[in-house]
Amino acid sequence: MEQKTIKHKFSFWHVVKSLASGLRLTWKHFRNAKNRRTPEYVTDKNYFNQPEGLVTLKYPYEAIPVPDNGRYRLHNEIDDCIVCDLCAKICPVNCITIESVKATEEIGMTSDGTKKRLYAPVFDIDMAKCCYCGLCTTVCPTDCLTMTPVYDFAEVDIKNMIYHFTDLSLEQAEEKKQLLAKQQEEMAAAKAAALAARNKG
Amino acid sequence: MLAFVLTLVLLLSIVIVLAYAERKVAAFMQDRMGPTEAGPYGSLQAVLDVLKLLQKEDIVPAAADKKLFKLAPILIFAAVFAGFAVIPFTPDLVPAGIGIGVFYLLAIISLDVVGLLMAGWGSNNKYAMLGAMRSVAQIVSYEIPAALAILSAVMVCQSLDFQEISYQQGVLMNFFPGLGSEVNWLFGLEALGINTTYVGGITTWNIFRAPILLVSFIIYFIASLAESNRAPFDIPEAESELVAGFHVEYSGFRFAMLFLAEYSMMVLVSLVAVILFLGSWNTPLPNLGPIRLAYWTTGTVGELSGMLWGGFWLLSKTFMLLFLQLQIRWTYPRLRVDQLMHLCWKVLTPIALAVVLIAGIWRLLMI
Question: Are A22 and A39 in the same domain?
């Protein structure tokens, strides 16, 4: 393409014309203000077809949808969690804290049919530390740890950025621990008895 | 006293509407939404802003010249508000119908400059001081083309009374004492032989009675933008250079006063432009033979219909000009100081002088 020198024209009519074109431009935008951008996903046909009108969305009330594979706030579906601790192990910033208590019997099944044998009295994710790498969701064997489309979760107190996913209350957790301790005591006693019986015999 | 209260209430409501309109217009021209939360479409935003300002602490800087600092906002607002005293709102409502209204208005608005300098000097702040100096230089300079443009209108109308000038620009001309036998000719030229006294409407507006006044209207409009410190002549308040200019140290009620004075000034200069050039409270619709649009949209003088029509036309024309002021603000970038002075002294003043001369000659043709 041939480059042309831009010459500024200072004659009276050119100045008037350029002033008028400026006013026309703002007037055009003012007139188009009755149209508004609609909150549509980027794959929508209409997404790039809205060159005119107001571009802002009333954010908390409207928002452009985020991609399905976007990485935002974590959520753990505790009913499906087998407390395998893989997520806590893979986490590069150690934002997941899990404590597990063995159950005395099978607790139930996850939705994909895996047996649950562990309680999780503590399952905390510190979203303030989270780096949104998504590794935890890829290692999760039961797909219970997922990224949700929620990205607007700022808090005044940073303590509120720690999300607690456990479904056990403190008392229940204590009870489960005691149950386990009792069972282990019983098993130890049984083992000791069996050992004693064998030694006798 | 009633006129005082009425004018104050009217002014406050216009300023509230204008402050809201400013934000909405700015937003729409920049493809934004503007205030949406307070009230329907954010319409209560300006009211709430004022309430917020009234609740704020009135801070007076320790190093300020306290007397000047405290007095300045009152003086600035009083100077602008006093200007409204001579503005005719309807054919028979003018707060103070003095015969030298135009002269009084020019004089009283100049007091504004003293207030600005007091605010800038009293704040003891370099930005405030710079802003005030620029402001004074600008306003004093632009008063000359503005006054010359007004002078050309006054020469055509042969009166310093706003109400008389208003009556001359419409079908009610012969109702004004002393104008009973006056005749309006198209473009003010008797030679054309078209009598527009009873046609009225836009044909008797000053910009039609003497078309040269269209030029002086444009000069006055540009100069009035500078006088009310509006963009593109807002170098006294240039946010990016001077924070906020002369009112940088003000807060609370005093800031509200300065804000009010600024917007009142916009309203006042627009009102003056409408009265002097755009037919004042007269209807823009002319009588067309049997279709007596001008009479239908004028009402009867002294009755409610005349009051309402007069007020309606005056305010709607004023709001058109105010909208233009807003649009200009959001269209053009700010001038540099040298460009500002160049425009005033080398462009507007010579043209205004020529217009005064031509207006004088035109007046001779009009007799």
Answer: yes
Asked if the C-beta of B36 comes within 8 angstroms of chain A's C-beta atoms, the answer is: yes
Q: What is the pTM of this model?
A: 0.82
| CA-to-CA separations, B263 to B77, B108, B122, B132, B229, in angstroms, rounded | 10, 17, 22, 18, 10
Same domain? For A130 and A51 the reply is: no
A59 and A83: one domain?
no
Looking at the structure, tell me whether residues A24 and A99 fall in a common domain.
no
Establish if A181 belongs to a structural domain.
Answer: no
Taking contacts as CB-CB distances below 8 angstroms, the residues of chain B near A23 are 327-328, 331
By the 10 Å C-beta count (0-12 exposed, 13-18 middle, 19+ buried), A170 is classed as exposed
Yes or no, beta carbons of A29 and B328 under 8 Å apart: no
Q: Is the peptide bond before B290 cis (omega within 30 degrees of 0)?
A: no
* Full pLDDT tens readout for chain B, 367 residues: 777 888 888 888 999 999 999 999 999 998 888 888 888 888 898 889 889 888 988 888 888 888 888 888 999 999 888 888 888 888 777 777 788 888 999 888 888 888 888 888 888 888 888 888 888 888 888 889 999 999 999 988 888 888 888 888 888 777 777 777 777 777 777 777 777 777 777 888 888 888 888 899 999 999 989 888 887 888 777 677 777 778 888 888 888 888 888 899 999 999 999 999 988 888 888 888 777 777 777 777 777 888 888 888 889 999 999 999 999 988 988 888 888 888 889 889 999 999 999 988 888 887 6
Report chain A residues whose CB lies below 8 A from the CB of B325. none
Is residue A23 a part of any domain in this protein?
Answer: yes
Token pair, residue B154, equals 């006054």
Beta bridge partners of A123: A98
Residues A103 and A165 in one domain: yes
Say if A163 falls within a structural domain: yes
A15 in contact with chain B, both atoms CB, cutoff 8 A = no
Whether the Cβ atoms of residue B148 and residue B137 lie closer than 8 Å to each other: no
- For chain A, the domain total comes to 2
What is the CATH number for A92? 3.30.70.3270
What's the rounded Cα separation, in Å, for the pair B265 and B283? 24
> Measured between CB atoms, does A58 come within 8 Å of chain B?
yes
Q: Residue A102: which domain range? A: 74-176
Same domain for A124 and A141, yes or no, is yes
Tell me, yes or no, whether A131 and A40 share the same domain.
no
